[in-house]
Amino acid sequence: MKALKNYLNKIKPNFEEGGRLHWLSSTYDAFETFLFVPNTTSKTGVHIHDARDSKRTMSIVILALLPALLVGMYNVGLQHYMAIGREVTLLTSFLYGLIAMLPQIVVSYVVGLGIEFAVAQMKKEEVAEGFLVSGILIPMILPIDTPLWMVAVATAFSVIFAKEVFGGTGYNIFNVALIARAFLFFSYPSKMSGDQVWVRTADTFGMGRGTVIDGFSGATPLGQIATSEAGSFSEFTFHGITGDPLSISDMFFGFIPGSVGEVSTFAILLGALILIATGVGSWKTMLSVFIGGGVSILLVNAFAQNAIMEMPFYYHFLLGGFAFGAVFMATDPVTSARTEKGKWIFGFLIGLIAVAIRVFNPGYPEGMMLAILLMNAFAPLIDFFVIDANMKRRAKRLAA
Amino acid sequence: MALSAKTKAALLGPLNKNNPVIVQVLGICSALAVTSKLEPALVMAVAVTLVTAFGNVIISLLRKTIPTRIRIIVQLVVVAALVTIVSEVLKAFAYDVNKQLSVFVGLIVTNCILMGRLEAFALGNGPWPSFLDGIGNGLGYGWILVTVGFFRELLGSGKLLGHQVIPQCMYDAGYENNGLMMLAPMALILVAVIIWVHRARNKDLQEETN
To answer: In terms of residue numbers, what domain contains A286?
Structure first.
């Protein structure tokens, strides 16, 4: 650490005004502040400082994502070896998932950070740290079999058109990671939905070669129920990729087909605890997403006509991206509502719309992405009305 | 024949700094609707150019006799007549394209570019400058349409004017057509990108930011 600091201090003059590498100063600054707490102190005004700047915040979100990421990686391997009908150790499964996932993470970070650094350099601004989280979120919400060039194109598209054109980190209207997913979802539907993409059946860099067993089906549980012909939920059973029925605990701990981030509700709850304990994520948003979802599920259940309408609320919460979206996407401090009352409304409507899309549109088995993106657009409006109502109340009190 | 500075501006201005689509932001609806393929975009560009040019000429010739209070009605009648001719010609000689353009040929009548040029230019200028102004604005509208149509067809279906241009070996290597390109939102984003590049090159057109 000491040696690194000394080295940074030694090369610093090159990047300062007049130095020959001054044009790279944003890049230098980004690395210096990423590695060490900046040693600037305020000369005037408020002198109380907190170590929690946005780099620290981002690091905590990454930390909170780790459980879901690790369990998701293990699950990628687990589903793969189940698909080729081979019993392997936990470590082998995890290793397979790791090497399947790593290229996507690398591509997402290289492309996204490359654009961020280039733009910061061009605008002569500091490199903003927003992409640290988006870069890991993007591969976590994509199917494991997404081709790498698609990850690159979607990342570039969302960083440029969802973020940089609006002014960079902190100014974006829509969640950057979800825009990347939405872009792929509408551009290459065959690679983003259906029952072929959620379980990797081919080998990864030569690891786990084998032939797929008979009776394999890679459909996600939500995909199964959206396309099922069953007239009522009691006639319907969720089955895993080998055809065995799925238990509630499989769904809770994340041993089902799905994208890396979303499968394990247990790991997502761990992440939620970290976010709430550190105050990084708002528990109001998270809770209200579940309340909104719950209310609309109960309504739908009351007028149920087919299996998916009868599906009880805990299945909705355990399956698909509901929990992941509620904990990591809806709480994005930039794109969610900022007023405390607004957060309740914002989250509630996300849950409501997500369930409505799931239940009423067979074309989209998962509604979380579209629900969050839609509410992102309305977040400023919600804030406006919350603040406006408050102003009116106070004006009234003043008049009385 | 040499063009005076004014007529030159009428012809060439709309292609660049006075472009109806990317500077005045008119005619966006049809720019989104007909550009999913290059061919309808080309046909639409030609149709709008012809209607704008001849509409301008006719209104310019009539400009001294049209009572001001009913000028919109007269303009509409002239434009509607021209659009009907274009539509009939298309139906007779290019039926497939006409079907792809569907309602948007008829909707040229309501294209803001047309009414805008008739109101702003033809009513106050002679037939020859009006004709050039119509051609200029039609082409200004047209080149945006063709550019957007080019990229949408190329990236959306791998074809240009119906011919496959992206080779099969690319598809074998894992390339796929981008379905989003065929949807209207992407046309809006492409128009926005053209505006972006155009504003970056013409700093005098940039709005002041605070």
So the answer is: 267-399
